[in-house]
Amino acid sequence: MTTLLFFPTHASGLRTFEDLINLASSNEMNCILLLHKNMPPPSSKLSKNVKIIRIDPINSLPKWLSTTLKMFLHFLLLRKFFPRKIRIQIEALQVLLNLRLSYRFIKNNLKSIKIDKYVLFGDRHYVSGIEPALIKYAKEKNLPIIIPPHGHYSDIPSLFPLRRDKDHMFENFSEKAKRLSYPQKDPQSNKLISFFKASKIIALHQFGLTYSNPWVIGASFSNILMVDSEFEASRLIDEGCPKEKVVVTGQIVYDFLYDLRLKRDEIKQRLAKKYCLNEKKPLILVALPQILEQGLGNEEVHWQEINFILRNLEPFKTNCLLALHPKMDRLTYQKFISSFSLNILDDDLKDALPAADVYISTFSSTIQWSGFCAIPTLILDFYGLNYTTYDDRPGIHILRDRKLVHRTIEYMTENALRLSRNMEPYKIMYAPTDGQCRSRIIEYLKKSG
Protein backbone atom coordinates (compact mmCIF):
# COMPACT_ATOMS: atom_id res chain seq x y z
CA MET A 1 0.00 0.00 0.00
CA THR A 2 1.36 3.43 -0.96
CA THR A 3 2.23 5.75 1.94
CA LEU A 4 2.08 9.50 1.36
CA LEU A 5 3.42 12.25 3.61
CA PHE A 6 1.57 15.59 3.39
CA PHE A 7 2.88 18.95 4.54
CA PRO A 8 0.66 22.05 4.12
CA THR A 9 2.43 25.38 4.70
CA HIS A 10 -0.48 27.38 6.17
CA ALA A 11 -4.04 27.13 7.51
CA SER A 12 -5.89 27.55 4.21
CA GLY A 13 -3.49 25.00 2.70
CA LEU A 14 -4.45 22.57 5.46
CA ARG A 15 -8.11 22.79 4.44
CA THR A 16 -7.16 22.04 0.82
CA PHE A 17 -4.96 19.14 1.91
CA GLU A 18 -7.71 17.65 4.07
CA ASP A 19 -9.82 17.02 0.96
CA LEU A 20 -6.79 15.56 -0.79
CA ILE A 21 -5.93 13.30 2.17
CA ASN A 22 -9.51 12.06 2.45
CA LEU A 23 -9.48 11.27 -1.27
CA ALA A 24 -6.20 9.36 -0.97
CA SER A 25 -7.40 7.48 2.14
CA SER A 26 -10.60 6.43 0.40
CA ASN A 27 -8.44 5.02 -2.41
CA GLU A 28 -6.47 2.72 -0.10
CA MET A 29 -3.41 4.89 0.51
CA ASN A 30 -1.79 5.43 3.90
CA CYS A 31 -1.53 9.11 4.79
CA ILE A 32 0.70 10.97 7.24
CA LEU A 33 0.01 14.62 7.96
CA LEU A 34 2.95 16.72 9.13
CA LEU A 35 1.89 19.98 10.83
CA HIS A 36 3.88 22.92 12.14
CA LYS A 37 3.39 23.34 15.91
CA ASN A 38 1.47 26.62 15.37
CA MET A 39 -0.89 25.24 12.75
CA PRO A 40 -4.55 24.98 13.87
CA PRO A 41 -5.88 21.44 14.31
CA PRO A 42 -7.43 19.66 11.33
CA SER A 43 -11.20 19.79 11.01
CA SER A 44 -13.47 16.95 12.08
CA LYS A 45 -13.86 16.07 8.38
CA LEU A 46 -10.34 14.62 8.22
CA SER A 47 -10.21 10.83 7.95
CA LYS A 48 -9.61 9.14 11.33
CA ASN A 49 -7.03 6.83 9.72
CA VAL A 50 -4.50 9.64 9.23
CA LYS A 51 -1.39 9.73 11.38
CA ILE A 52 -0.65 13.31 12.51
CA ILE A 53 2.84 14.47 13.51
CA ARG A 54 3.32 17.92 15.04
CA ILE A 55 6.67 19.53 14.19
CA ASP A 56 8.32 21.21 17.16
CA PRO A 57 12.09 21.00 16.55
CA ILE A 58 13.32 23.02 19.55
CA ASN A 59 11.03 21.58 22.23
CA SER A 60 11.86 18.05 21.08
CA LEU A 61 15.44 18.60 22.28
CA PRO A 62 16.60 17.90 25.85
CA LYS A 63 15.27 20.66 28.12
CA TRP A 64 18.66 22.23 28.89
CA LEU A 65 19.53 22.41 25.20
CA SER A 66 16.08 23.68 24.24
CA THR A 67 16.32 26.46 26.84
CA THR A 68 19.81 27.42 25.68
CA LEU A 69 18.75 27.61 22.03
CA LYS A 70 15.71 29.72 22.84
CA MET A 71 17.92 32.18 24.72
CA PHE A 72 20.36 32.23 21.78
CA LEU A 73 17.56 32.88 19.26
CA HIS A 74 16.27 35.74 21.42
CA PHE A 75 19.78 37.17 21.49
CA LEU A 76 19.86 37.06 17.68
CA LEU A 77 16.92 39.49 17.62
CA LEU A 78 19.47 42.18 18.50
CA ARG A 79 20.81 41.90 14.94
CA LYS A 80 18.78 44.96 13.89
CA PHE A 81 21.26 47.13 15.82
CA PHE A 82 24.26 45.82 13.85
CA PRO A 83 25.62 47.09 10.51
CA ARG A 84 23.84 45.57 7.52
CA LYS A 85 26.67 43.23 6.51
CA ILE A 86 26.89 41.71 10.00
CA ARG A 87 23.09 41.61 10.30
CA ILE A 88 22.84 39.48 7.15
CA GLN A 89 25.43 37.05 8.54
CA ILE A 90 23.48 36.78 11.81
CA GLU A 91 20.22 36.22 9.90
CA ALA A 92 21.90 33.52 7.81
CA LEU A 93 23.06 31.81 11.02
CA GLN A 94 19.53 31.87 12.41
CA VAL A 95 18.05 30.46 9.18
CA LEU A 96 20.69 27.72 9.04
CA LEU A 97 19.99 26.81 12.68
CA ASN A 98 16.24 26.49 11.94
CA LEU A 99 16.97 24.37 8.86
CA ARG A 100 19.21 21.97 10.77
CA LEU A 101 16.83 21.69 13.71
CA SER A 102 13.92 20.96 11.34
CA TYR A 103 15.98 18.38 9.47
CA ARG A 104 17.00 16.68 12.74
CA PHE A 105 13.36 16.47 13.86
CA ILE A 106 12.20 15.11 10.50
CA LYS A 107 14.96 12.52 10.32
CA ASN A 108 14.35 11.28 13.88
CA ASN A 109 10.58 11.07 13.47
CA LEU A 110 10.38 9.63 9.95
CA LYS A 111 13.30 7.19 9.87
CA SER A 112 11.15 4.29 11.11
CA ILE A 113 8.28 5.01 8.68
CA LYS A 114 8.28 3.73 5.11
CA ILE A 115 7.18 6.71 3.01
CA ASP A 116 6.75 6.38 -0.76
CA LYS A 117 6.05 9.99 -1.78
CA TYR A 118 6.12 13.47 -0.32
CA VAL A 119 3.16 15.74 -1.09
CA LEU A 120 4.18 19.34 -0.45
CA PHE A 121 2.48 22.70 -0.96
CA GLY A 122 5.43 23.84 -3.05
CA ASP A 123 9.19 23.67 -3.45
CA ARG A 124 10.14 27.28 -2.73
CA HIS A 125 8.65 28.06 0.71
CA TYR A 126 10.70 28.48 3.87
CA VAL A 127 8.12 27.84 6.67
CA SER A 128 10.57 27.94 9.60
CA GLY A 129 12.91 25.72 7.61
CA ILE A 130 10.50 22.78 7.46
CA GLU A 131 9.79 22.57 3.72
CA PRO A 132 13.50 22.79 2.73
CA ALA A 133 14.32 20.16 5.36
CA LEU A 134 11.64 17.83 3.96
CA ILE A 135 12.97 18.39 0.44
CA LYS A 136 16.51 17.53 1.52
CA TYR A 137 15.34 14.39 3.36
CA ALA A 138 13.22 13.24 0.40
CA LYS A 139 16.08 13.77 -2.05
CA GLU A 140 18.49 11.83 0.17
CA LYS A 141 15.99 8.95 0.16
CA ASN A 142 15.55 9.36 -3.62
CA LEU A 143 11.79 9.69 -3.18
CA PRO A 144 9.50 11.79 -5.41
CA ILE A 145 8.06 15.16 -4.40
CA ILE A 146 4.56 15.92 -5.67
CA ILE A 147 2.93 19.34 -5.64
CA PRO A 148 -0.84 18.83 -5.85
CA PRO A 149 -3.15 21.41 -7.46
CA HIS A 150 -4.17 24.07 -4.95
CA GLY A 151 -5.07 27.21 -6.87
CA HIS A 152 -3.55 29.62 -9.30
CA TYR A 153 0.23 29.70 -8.91
CA SER A 154 1.64 33.23 -8.85
CA ASP A 155 3.28 34.40 -12.04
CA ILE A 156 6.62 36.20 -11.82
CA PRO A 157 5.28 39.80 -12.06
CA SER A 158 2.92 39.16 -9.13
CA LEU A 159 5.87 38.20 -6.89
CA PHE A 160 7.66 41.55 -7.23
CA PRO A 161 5.50 43.84 -5.01
CA LEU A 162 6.47 42.09 -1.75
CA ARG A 163 10.17 42.02 -2.76
CA ARG A 164 10.93 45.61 -3.58
CA ASP A 165 12.83 46.21 -0.32
CA LYS A 166 16.61 46.56 -0.06
CA ASP A 167 17.02 43.04 1.37
CA HIS A 168 15.87 41.55 -1.96
CA MET A 169 17.74 43.95 -4.24
CA PHE A 170 20.45 42.09 -6.16
CA GLU A 171 22.70 45.16 -6.17
CA ASN A 172 22.97 44.97 -2.36
CA PHE A 173 24.09 41.32 -2.33
CA SER A 174 27.59 40.07 -1.57
CA GLU A 175 29.42 38.36 -4.41
CA LYS A 176 28.69 34.95 -2.88
CA ALA A 177 24.95 35.67 -2.63
CA LYS A 178 24.92 36.99 -6.19
CA ARG A 179 26.45 33.75 -7.52
CA LEU A 180 23.77 31.67 -5.77
CA SER A 181 20.69 33.80 -6.43
CA TYR A 182 18.34 33.71 -9.40
CA PRO A 183 17.40 37.37 -9.97
CA GLN A 184 14.63 38.71 -12.17
CA LYS A 185 14.29 42.24 -13.55
CA ASP A 186 11.41 44.18 -12.04
CA PRO A 187 9.86 46.41 -14.72
CA GLN A 188 8.61 48.92 -12.15
CA SER A 189 11.90 49.60 -10.34
CA ASN A 190 14.02 48.55 -13.34
CA LYS A 191 16.24 46.65 -10.91
CA LEU A 192 17.22 43.01 -10.44
CA ILE A 193 15.35 41.40 -7.56
CA SER A 194 16.05 38.11 -5.81
CA PHE A 195 13.29 35.71 -4.77
CA PHE A 196 15.02 35.06 -1.43
CA LYS A 197 16.85 37.48 0.84
CA ALA A 198 20.65 37.18 0.79
CA SER A 199 20.64 35.60 4.28
CA LYS A 200 18.31 32.78 3.17
CA ILE A 201 20.25 32.14 -0.03
CA ILE A 202 23.50 31.72 1.90
CA ALA A 203 21.92 29.54 4.61
CA LEU A 204 20.07 27.30 2.13
CA HIS A 205 23.30 26.77 0.17
CA GLN A 206 25.19 25.84 3.36
CA PHE A 207 22.33 23.48 4.18
CA GLY A 208 22.82 21.78 0.82
CA LEU A 209 19.98 23.21 -1.26
CA THR A 210 20.49 25.44 -4.28
CA TYR A 211 17.27 26.45 -6.02
CA SER A 212 17.45 26.39 -9.81
CA ASN A 213 14.50 28.80 -10.24
CA PRO A 214 12.43 29.65 -7.14
CA TRP A 215 10.37 32.22 -9.08
CA VAL A 216 8.46 29.36 -10.72
CA ILE A 217 6.76 26.79 -8.53
CA GLY A 218 7.84 23.25 -9.30
CA ALA A 219 10.92 24.30 -11.24
CA SER A 220 13.47 23.44 -8.56
CA PHE A 221 12.84 20.20 -6.65
CA SER A 222 9.44 18.72 -7.51
CA ASN A 223 8.99 15.60 -9.64
CA ILE A 224 5.33 16.23 -10.46
CA LEU A 225 3.49 19.57 -10.50
CA MET A 226 -0.28 19.20 -10.85
CA VAL A 227 -2.05 22.23 -12.34
CA ASP A 228 -5.60 23.32 -13.05
CA SER A 229 -5.61 23.83 -16.80
CA GLU A 230 -3.72 23.66 -20.09
CA PHE A 231 -3.58 27.46 -19.95
CA GLU A 232 -1.83 27.32 -16.55
CA ALA A 233 0.50 24.55 -17.71
CA SER A 234 1.63 26.55 -20.76
CA ARG A 235 2.30 29.63 -18.64
CA LEU A 236 4.42 27.77 -16.09
CA ILE A 237 6.41 26.00 -18.81
CA ASP A 238 7.01 29.32 -20.55
CA GLU A 239 8.27 30.76 -17.25
CA GLY A 240 10.78 27.95 -16.81
CA CYS A 241 9.18 24.88 -15.23
CA PRO A 242 10.39 21.73 -17.07
CA LYS A 243 7.61 20.44 -19.32
CA GLU A 244 7.97 16.82 -18.17
CA LYS A 245 6.99 17.77 -14.61
CA VAL A 246 3.69 19.48 -15.41
CA VAL A 247 0.42 17.54 -15.56
CA VAL A 248 -3.12 18.92 -15.89
CA THR A 249 -5.49 17.44 -13.31
CA GLY A 250 -7.67 20.24 -11.94
CA GLN A 251 -8.42 20.47 -8.21
CA ILE A 252 -10.82 18.38 -6.17
CA VAL A 253 -12.82 21.53 -5.53
CA TYR A 254 -13.68 21.83 -9.23
CA ASP A 255 -15.56 18.53 -9.18
CA PHE A 256 -17.38 19.83 -6.13
CA LEU A 257 -18.18 23.16 -7.83
CA TYR A 258 -19.20 21.31 -10.99
CA ASP A 259 -21.84 19.38 -9.02
CA LEU A 260 -23.04 22.36 -6.98
CA ARG A 261 -23.39 24.69 -9.95
CA LEU A 262 -26.08 22.34 -11.25
CA LYS A 263 -27.97 22.97 -7.99
CA ARG A 264 -27.41 26.74 -7.82
CA ASP A 265 -31.11 27.68 -7.55
CA GLU A 266 -31.59 25.30 -4.65
CA ILE A 267 -28.46 26.67 -2.88
CA LYS A 268 -29.54 30.26 -3.49
CA GLN A 269 -32.92 29.56 -1.90
CA ARG A 270 -31.23 28.02 1.14
CA LEU A 271 -28.87 30.99 1.56
CA ALA A 272 -31.72 33.49 1.14
CA LYS A 273 -33.70 31.76 3.88
CA LYS A 274 -30.70 31.37 6.23
CA TYR A 275 -29.46 34.98 5.92
CA CYS A 276 -32.81 36.71 5.27
CA LEU A 277 -31.86 37.85 1.78
CA ASN A 278 -34.06 38.95 -1.10
CA GLU A 279 -34.06 35.87 -3.30
CA LYS A 280 -35.38 37.80 -6.30
CA LYS A 281 -32.29 40.01 -6.47
CA PRO A 282 -28.90 38.89 -7.88
CA LEU A 283 -26.78 37.40 -5.08
CA ILE A 284 -23.50 39.26 -4.46
CA LEU A 285 -20.76 37.33 -2.66
CA VAL A 286 -17.82 39.38 -1.39
CA ALA A 287 -14.47 38.05 -0.14
CA LEU A 288 -13.07 40.83 2.05
CA PRO A 289 -9.42 41.81 1.44
CA GLN A 290 -6.68 40.56 3.78
CA ILE A 291 -4.58 43.73 3.75
CA LEU A 292 -3.45 43.32 7.36
CA GLU A 293 -3.19 39.52 7.27
CA GLN A 294 -1.07 39.56 4.08
CA GLY A 295 1.17 42.40 5.21
CA LEU A 296 -0.02 44.79 2.49
CA GLY A 297 -0.72 47.57 4.99
CA ASN A 298 -0.89 48.42 8.68
CA GLU A 299 -3.95 48.09 10.92
CA GLU A 300 -5.18 51.63 10.26
CA VAL A 301 -5.00 51.22 6.47
CA HIS A 302 -6.67 47.81 6.67
CA TRP A 303 -9.74 48.96 8.59
CA GLN A 304 -10.07 52.08 6.46
CA GLU A 305 -10.27 49.82 3.40
CA ILE A 306 -12.76 47.47 5.02
CA ASN A 307 -14.88 50.48 6.01
CA PHE A 308 -14.72 51.85 2.44
CA ILE A 309 -15.82 48.54 0.92
CA LEU A 310 -18.63 48.03 3.42
CA ARG A 311 -20.00 51.53 2.80
CA ASN A 312 -20.17 50.74 -0.91
CA LEU A 313 -21.88 47.42 -0.24
CA GLU A 314 -24.48 48.67 2.22
CA PRO A 315 -26.98 49.68 -0.52
CA PHE A 316 -26.94 46.00 -1.58
CA LYS A 317 -27.34 44.57 1.93
CA THR A 318 -30.52 42.64 1.09
CA ASN A 319 -28.68 40.54 -1.50
CA CYS A 320 -25.06 40.56 -0.27
CA LEU A 321 -22.97 38.08 1.75
CA LEU A 322 -19.44 38.65 3.09
CA ALA A 323 -16.85 35.86 3.16
CA LEU A 324 -13.81 35.77 5.47
CA HIS A 325 -10.51 34.02 4.75
CA PRO A 326 -9.47 31.42 7.38
CA LYS A 327 -6.69 33.82 8.49
CA MET A 328 -9.26 36.47 9.46
CA ASP A 329 -10.54 36.47 13.05
CA ARG A 330 -14.30 36.10 12.81
CA LEU A 331 -15.17 37.79 16.13
CA THR A 332 -13.08 40.88 15.28
CA TYR A 333 -14.78 41.26 11.90
CA GLN A 334 -18.26 40.59 13.29
CA LYS A 335 -17.82 43.45 15.75
CA PHE A 336 -16.63 45.83 13.02
CA ILE A 337 -19.29 44.83 10.48
CA SER A 338 -22.27 44.80 12.87
CA SER A 339 -23.06 48.50 12.28
CA PHE A 340 -23.44 47.94 8.51
CA SER A 341 -26.29 45.38 8.65
CA LEU A 342 -24.39 43.03 6.36
CA ASN A 343 -24.23 39.25 6.78
CA ILE A 344 -21.03 37.25 7.21
CA LEU A 345 -21.13 33.87 5.54
CA ASP A 346 -20.60 31.00 7.99
CA ASP A 347 -20.78 28.36 5.25
CA ASP A 348 -17.56 27.39 3.45
CA LEU A 349 -17.00 29.74 0.52
CA LYS A 350 -17.01 26.86 -1.95
CA ASP A 351 -20.45 25.76 -0.68
CA ALA A 352 -21.97 29.16 -1.40
CA LEU A 353 -20.03 30.45 -4.40
CA PRO A 354 -21.87 28.43 -7.10
CA ALA A 355 -25.10 30.25 -6.17
CA ALA A 356 -23.61 33.74 -6.60
CA ASP A 357 -24.59 36.00 -9.48
CA VAL A 358 -21.65 38.36 -8.88
CA TYR A 359 -18.40 37.67 -7.00
CA ILE A 360 -16.19 40.45 -5.58
CA SER A 361 -12.67 39.89 -4.33
CA THR A 362 -9.11 41.15 -4.44
CA PHE A 363 -6.58 39.00 -6.33
CA SER A 364 -7.14 35.50 -5.00
CA SER A 365 -7.08 31.88 -6.12
CA THR A 366 -10.86 31.90 -5.63
CA ILE A 367 -11.09 33.99 -8.82
CA GLN A 368 -10.32 30.68 -10.54
CA TRP A 369 -13.42 29.22 -8.88
CA SER A 370 -15.71 32.05 -9.97
CA GLY A 371 -14.33 31.90 -13.51
CA PHE A 372 -14.91 28.15 -13.62
CA CYS A 373 -18.52 28.70 -12.48
CA ALA A 374 -18.98 31.49 -15.07
CA ILE A 375 -19.80 34.02 -12.34
CA PRO A 376 -19.15 37.66 -13.30
CA THR A 377 -16.28 38.75 -11.06
CA LEU A 378 -15.06 42.14 -9.84
CA ILE A 379 -11.44 42.32 -8.65
CA LEU A 380 -10.73 45.32 -6.41
CA ASP A 381 -7.12 46.37 -6.92
CA PHE A 382 -6.53 49.57 -4.95
CA TYR A 383 -3.31 48.27 -3.46
CA GLY A 384 -0.78 48.64 -6.26
CA LEU A 385 -0.53 44.93 -7.04
CA ASN A 386 -1.27 45.43 -10.75
CA TYR A 387 -1.28 41.70 -11.48
CA THR A 388 -1.94 40.82 -15.11
CA THR A 389 -3.21 37.27 -14.56
CA TYR A 390 -6.84 38.01 -15.37
CA ASP A 391 -6.38 40.74 -17.95
CA ASP A 392 -8.65 40.13 -20.95
CA ARG A 393 -10.53 37.27 -19.26
CA PRO A 394 -14.23 37.49 -20.22
CA GLY A 395 -16.44 38.40 -17.27
CA ILE A 396 -13.50 39.31 -14.98
CA HIS A 397 -13.34 43.07 -14.38
CA ILE A 398 -10.36 44.63 -12.56
CA LEU A 399 -11.23 47.92 -10.87
CA ARG A 400 -8.55 50.40 -9.79
CA ASP A 401 -10.70 53.55 -9.52
CA ARG A 402 -12.36 53.84 -6.10
CA LYS A 403 -14.95 56.27 -7.39
CA LEU A 404 -16.47 53.61 -9.63
CA VAL A 405 -17.09 50.85 -7.05
CA HIS A 406 -20.81 51.38 -6.50
CA ARG A 407 -21.53 52.08 -10.16
CA THR A 408 -19.61 48.97 -11.27
CA ILE A 409 -21.39 46.68 -8.78
CA GLU A 410 -24.70 48.08 -9.95
CA TYR A 411 -23.79 47.45 -13.61
CA MET A 412 -22.61 43.89 -12.95
CA THR A 413 -25.71 42.91 -10.97
CA GLU A 414 -28.02 44.37 -13.62
CA ASN A 415 -26.15 42.49 -16.38
CA ALA A 416 -25.17 39.35 -14.45
CA LEU A 417 -27.02 36.88 -16.67
CA ARG A 418 -25.60 38.26 -19.92
CA LEU A 419 -22.06 38.43 -18.50
CA SER A 420 -22.32 34.85 -17.22
CA ARG A 421 -23.44 33.55 -20.61
CA ASN A 422 -20.44 35.24 -22.22
CA MET A 423 -18.14 33.45 -19.76
CA GLU A 424 -19.48 29.93 -20.40
CA PRO A 425 -17.22 29.08 -23.40
CA TYR A 426 -14.11 30.10 -21.43
CA LYS A 427 -14.60 27.93 -18.33
CA ILE A 428 -12.00 25.47 -19.67
CA MET A 429 -9.36 28.20 -19.12
CA TYR A 430 -9.72 27.58 -15.38
CA ALA A 431 -10.05 23.79 -15.10
CA PRO A 432 -11.35 20.70 -16.90
CA THR A 433 -15.15 20.73 -17.01
CA ASP A 434 -15.68 16.97 -17.05
CA GLY A 435 -16.05 16.38 -13.29
CA GLN A 436 -13.07 13.96 -13.32
CA CYS A 437 -10.40 15.97 -11.48
CA ARG A 438 -10.35 13.54 -8.54
CA SER A 439 -9.70 10.58 -10.81
CA ARG A 440 -6.71 12.29 -12.43
CA ILE A 441 -5.22 13.31 -9.07
CA ILE A 442 -5.45 9.74 -7.76
CA GLU A 443 -3.85 8.45 -10.95
CA TYR A 444 -0.73 10.57 -10.38
CA LEU A 445 -0.59 9.92 -6.64
CA LYS A 446 -0.53 6.19 -7.37
CA LYS A 447 2.03 6.33 -10.16
CA SER A 448 5.57 5.34 -9.30
CA GLY A 449 8.14 8.10 -8.90
Key features?
7-stranded parallel β-sheet; Rossmann fold; 2 domains; 6-stranded parallel β-sheet; alpha/beta
Descriptive report:
- It is a single chain.
- This protein is α/β, with parallel strands linked by helices and 449 residues long.
- The chain folds into 2 domains: 3-251 and 436-446, 3-Layer(aba) Sandwich (Rossmann fold); 263-429, Glycogen Phosphorylase B (Rossmann fold), CATH 3.40.50.2000.
- It contains 17 helices and 15 strands.
- It has helices spanning 11-26, 63-76, 84-110, 130-140, 156-159, 175-180, 198-207, 230-239, 252-261, 264-275, 299-313, 330-337, 349-352, 366-372, 405-414, 416-423, 437-446, and strands at 3-7, 30-36, 51-55, 117-120, 145-147, 184-186, 191-193, 224-227, 246-248, 284-287, 320-323, 343-344, 358-361, 377-380, 396-399.
- The strands form 3 sheets. It has a 7-stranded parallel β-sheet, sandwiched between helices.
- The mean pLDDT is 92.
Helix content: 40-55%
Task: Give, in spatial order, the strands making up the sheet with the most strands.
Answer: 3-2-1-4-5-8-9
Counted beta strands: 15
CA radius of gyration:
23 Å
**What is the first-to-last residue Cα distance?**
15 Å
- Can you tell me the CATH superfamily of the largest domain? Glycogen Phosphorylase B
Write the CATH architecture name of the largest domain: 3-Layer(aba) Sandwich
| Major sheet summary line | 7 strands, parallel
Per DSSP, what share of the residues sits in E-state strands of 2 or more residues? 5-15%
Question: How many structural domains?
Answer: 2
Silhouette: globular
Using the coordinates shown, work out and report the CATH topology of the largest domain. Rossmann fold
Can you tell me the residue ranges where pLDDT is under 50 for at least 5 consecutive residues? none
